[in-house]
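Blinded run. Sample ID left blank on purpose so nobody reads anything into the name before looking at the predicted structure. Input follows.
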Amino acid sequence: MKRPESVLVVVHTHEASVLLLRRLAPADWWQSVTGALEHGETALHAAQRELREETGLASDADLEDAGIVNRFEIIDPWRAKYAPGVTHNTEHVFRLALAAVTAIVLEPREHSEFVWLPKAQALERATSATDRAAIAALVPG
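Blinded prediction complete.
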């Protein structure tokens, strides 16, 4: 069963291009880098691991804890992955600011495509409210 604690990593350039990944399921779900903490793992280590797994990026030194923690209800498509009775998740938000748009290597079992979008378009495309709030707060412009 998954631990009901996760990370969200907003990846953007100094020029405010935002990286979004399209999940395989649910259909048409666009998000920043995300993932559950493994048992015994810290939020920072989970953010570093998820960043490498989902994008191929290994910018551990530049990863910044945004100091934002969200709590939200787990949506139905993912609820079965958690222990019975678990209904909410705690999400730790991080940011990675890059000098320029960078090549991404997707995890094909999880994501089908990626895009770099201007902040305004990323805010429109990101599916979750906590992701949109993080992009709005952390990306310049």
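Unblinding after everyone has recorded impressions. Helices lie at 43-55, 76-79, 119-125, 129-138.
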